[in-house]
Amino acid sequence: MTNNPTVHSILLVLVMAVVTYLLRAFPFLVFSGKKPTPKFVLYLGKVLPYAIIGMLVIYCVKDISFTTTSSWLAYLIAGAVVVLLHIWRRNTLLSIIAGTLSYMALVQFVF
Amino acid sequence: MKNKNDVKKAFVASLPVLAGYLALGFGFGVLLSTKGYGGIWALFMSITMFGGSSQYAAVEFLADGISLVSAALATLIINARHLFYGISLVDKYKGTGFKKFYMIHTLTDETYSLVCNDDAVKDVNNKHLYYFLVSLFDHIYWIMGCTLGAVFGSNVSFNSEGIDFVLTALFLTIFVEQWLTNKDHVPAVIGVGCAVLCTAIFKENMLIPTMILILIALTTLKFVRRDKYDE
Q: Where are the domains of chain A?
């Protein structure tokens, strides 16, 4: 579109930013205004977070390699720390910090 | 005074994202600087784009100088899941005025998971302020991580291997919290099930098929269990 590489780079970033913004804004554009939100959308809005958080958990662990034991074992142990600690104490920050520190310790010193 | 308490609550809730974004953003900044784009570019990109996977992809796009149309299409695919995040927030964000434009801009996976965590806002006085601050804090952490990475990347030797687990831990904690507070586990099981299935088939491109499958499954669920979901 342009011959100047810097201008092209700036436009490239802006194009990507605008597309991202439009994706994020879409539901707000469609379902705002004076009309009440359709019942089906309210239903989706209520149940989607449970499904999406579940999806994001799997997305985070999808790259685990099962060919080497150390890779998935560290994930399994640290994941168990997060889940069990959270069931026990129900303290979000504590669960996350303890889980992350145990994962870092496992990959840096143990495996 | 009550609002001061909300600021503190929003900050504490966003702390896991602080750790995750500093680490992930730093990684992005380092990568970006290796392609000859310095701190000013990291700052520019993290402010305007604010997205993990799309910014990592953008590093390659910039280096290759791909066309604007290709970049737009790639972003559409990488960030397609965001199309559905707002559905849960249309009502929550009603009445936030101009702040809404910014809260839409900052709606990442992590911000979404924090503002959907209803358990965290039960004692919050001004919920709209809380949602806005969580969005703002997340954005600031990301801008800091990206820019610091691009500026200082090559001089830092702190062994941070494994710190990216913090975002896995964040999602996992919210998943467990939702599981414990909500009696209906079917939507959560649908999300995990669809994601596992799509990962097996589509590998790293699992996000879009998973979102489509989740929408089909949740729509089916509504019709199968009409009695339960029609209030």
A: 1-48, 63-111
Chain A residue numbers touching B212 (CB-CB < 8 A): none
Which chain B residues in 63-122 lie under 8 Å from chain A, judged by CB atoms?
65-68, 71-72, 75-76, 79-91, 93-94, 100, 104-105, 107, 109, 112-113, 116, 120
Q: What pLDDT is stored for residue A105 in this prediction?
A: 94
CB-side neighbour CA atoms (13 Å) of A94: 9
Give the pTM.
0.86
pLDDT for A57 equals: 94
Instruction: Enumerate the residues of chain B whose CB falls inside 8 A of the CB of residue A12.
Output: 58, 61-62, 66, 68, 71
Task: Answer yes or no: is pLDDT of B45 > 90.
Answer: yes
Q: Summarize pLDDT for B78-101 with one digit per residue, the tens.
A: 898 899 999 999 989 988 999 999
ipTM: 0.89
Sketch the domain layout of chain B as residue ranges: 2-167, 183-231
